[in-house]
Amino acid sequence: MYKYNDFDTAFLAERNAQFRAQVERRIDGSLTEDEFKPLRLMNGLYLQLHAYMLRVAIPYGTLNSDQMRTLALLAEKWDKGYGHFTTRQNIQYNWPKLRDVPDMLDALAEVGLHAIQTSGNTIRNVTSDHFAAAAKDELTDPRPYAELIRQWSTDHPEFQFLGRKFKIAITGSSTDRAVTKAHDIGLRMVERDGVAGFEVIVGGGLGRTPLIGKVIRDYLPQADLLPYLESVLAVYNLLGRRDNKYKARIKITVLENGIDTIREMVEERFEERRKAFDGTDQQLLEEIKAHFTPPKLRGGNVETYLTAYDADPVFRSWADTNLAAHRDDNHAIVTISIKAHGQTPGDATAAQMRGMADLAEEFGYNELRISHEQNVILPHVHKSDLPALHAKLKEHGLATANVGLISDIIACPGMDYCALATARSIPVAQEIASRFDELKLEHDVGHLQIKISGCINACGHHHVGHIGILGLDRAGVENYQITLGGDATETAAIGTRTGPGFAYDEIVPAVERLITAYLSLRDSAEETFLQTYRRVGMDPFKAALYPEAQKKVA
Amino acid sequence: MPRPFTPKIITANDLLEGDVIYFTDTNSWSRELQEAELIEDEAEAQLRLLEAEKDALRVVGIYLTDAKSGDNGPEPTHFREDFRRTGPSNYRHGKQEAAANV
Ligand code: HEM
Ligand code: SF4
């Protein structure tokens, strides 16, 4: 993975020293909150409902064991013993004290981590496929490009004061695990005449106007990546609305001007900008690539794995849900669920983080990933190690076999932490997971993504959930709207609203009715919820959700 | 037609801790909503807000919010303020934790 060079290290040290001085000046009264707020936001420090919140970037979701241990240290020393992994490959600490934040940032810098551009109207943390460099279906490792974009965008003078925040996601696989179509810019590696380049998608996004991005370039040569991105951002900077915060995203620019106009303008600028690039970026890319050489995978047979798979049903059930195909047949990609039934989705304790760091060292070539689905991944594990790994995960309470199932819920912090929320998300997720665990239906129901947001900003991705739940405030009480049919993959789709929302104590039973309806509607156990929905449409689900309304019609 | 004024309290977060705090009738800040000053008059509310804002260097995000009179002092009328006075639902953190430590 990418190692900070002297320049990067010095840059972080200087940034942190600056911030330390700013915090001092706020505390001694020389800075007002109005002066200090933009400075703290530039360093990932928010003020939330009950306390401050520090958001730390995990670039393209990749960590080594030392970095994970530092995340644990922060949780233990300066927070309440846990951290919250988000849908944007960040970790959030919910209880830091203002005075401690500079120390936290210094500790992070020691292992090459930071909180820069995790807030503000800039290019945010570039996210990527959490199975990068391990997935069987991958064309090229997308992370060197993500790192190139990060270096180019960090403190880029032209893009520090955009109309709004700007999010880029990149994938190197045909299966989209990075939700590229719901980002300001999505980049997908594609091949033309045997040469890998990018399909460029712009104008996707969730929030109050959810939109699927449009292809602006079906093939961009790799060497043109930065000048092309610059051109897209320059056009957005020029045309993007600034009169209304909600209309300031590039998705609205694309919607209002049309993709063809945007494309023409981008191509025009691209012609000029490309000339300014003298190849330094390509040299840099080569240097970056050298840091992403894949681990030397070891050989050996997989007997222990096959034996355990046959003999131990608990191991088998975990292997069936939590493993994914690795490009090397003797290895597997392991997703560690941090969604134990009834726990807060995405939370890990300091002890669990350390445990995962140790396991990555022992079994996983020292690599960890954070997924946008709020889980942790060991991308390379030799299959013969899986039984031992599974046993140790159990000791840490990390062996829940539910990846991709109904309790593997994405939930934003909602009104339990977030100042923007209109209702809670976390307890709803906890109750759904516990309920289906009680019913022992989870494995029978199969692949199903429930995603919950506590307000229309849609951090919890509800628009692209097979079942999406949006928490709202209806006349001073929590109310939950359901959408169906959303999809976060390469066949991305925005879900459709079912009808009136449900009160807090009605939402779990409503989800249960949806699942019961699905179980009776599906063709076979192989037909997933999403497939059934696509085949039968909304009506039978609506009937299950609103039985009273049906009676009135009849 | 202007909406009738409803009683208010003044709330903010502590600068150093981030903790939720309330403005009292003795011009100090308390961690307990019950100790907040309940302001029944609209003009008075604006004056009290100005008074509270004198502390803007020590506190963050001062605002007026609805409350009603209860048996032991003011109570929230909206669930958001109810959560702010207690803490998150998933752990007994925030004010719930402080209470548990007594
Ligand atoms: C707790 C403090 C947070 C604040 C104040 C916050 C703020 C916001 C705002 C204002 C938006 C709307 C942007 C727009 O579309 O105009 C948004 C969207 C989003 N946020 Fe957050 N957020 C918070 C936490 C999170 C968390 C915990 C996650 C991940 C779980 C997250 C990831 C996202 C994502 C993925 C979007 C999607 C909308 C999009 O840009 O298309 N945020 N957030
Ligand atoms: S969806 Fe809304 S409530 Fe949830 S984290 Fe995002 S901004 Fe906060």
Characterization of this structure:
- The complex is a heterodimer of chains A (554) and B (102).
- With 554 residues, chain A is α+β, with helices and mostly antiparallel strands.
- Helix content of chain A is 39%, strand content 18%.
- In chain A, strand 1 (45-47) and strand 2 form a beta hairpin.
- In chain A, helix 6 packs across helix 8.
- Helices cover 26% and strands 28% of the residues of chain B.
- Chain B has three helices and five strands.
- Chain B has helices at residues 42-53, 79-86, 95-101; strands spanning 8-14, 20-23, 29-30, 59-70, 73-76.
- The N and C termini of chain B lie far apart (48 Å).
- Chain B is globular and about 45 Å long.
- Chain A binds chain B through residues 26-27, 29, 32-33, 47-52, 80, 94-99, 344, 347, 415-417, 424, 426-427, 430, 473, 476-478, and chain B through 13, 15-20, 56-57, 60-61, 77-80, 83-84, 87-91, 93-95.
- Iron/sulfur cluster binds next to loops of chain A.
- Residues 412-414, 418, 420-421, 453-455, 457-460 of chain A line the site of iron/sulfur cluster (SF4).
- Chain B: Residues 65-102 are annotated as: Disordered.
- Chain B: Residues 33-60 form a coiled coil.
- Chain B: This is Sulfite reductase.
- Chain B: Keywords: Coiled coil.
- Chain B: Pfam families: DUF2849 (PF11011).
